Amino acid sequence: MINWWDRLPTLGPVDTFVLVDGGGTHCRVAVCDRHGELLGYEVAGPTNARAVGDARALTTLVSAIEHAVGNSEAGPVGLCLVTTAAVDTAEQSDKLAAGVQPVVGDAKVVVAPDTLGCWAVTNDLGPAVAVIAGTGSVVVAADREQRKWLRLGGWDYVLGDEGSGFGLARATLREALFTSEGRADAHAMLQGVLEALGIDDPDGIADAVHKPTVDKARVAALAAIPLSLSAGGDKPAMQVVRGQVEPLAEAAAHAIVKLESSSPLVGCFGGTFKSNIFRTEFEAALHRLLPDRLTVPLVERSALVGAFMLALSQTGVDIDEVKLASAAFADQIAQRTGEADRSGFRAE
Question: Which of the listed residues 8, 82, 166, 311 has the most CB atoms within 10 Å of its CB?
Answer without folding.
Answer: 166
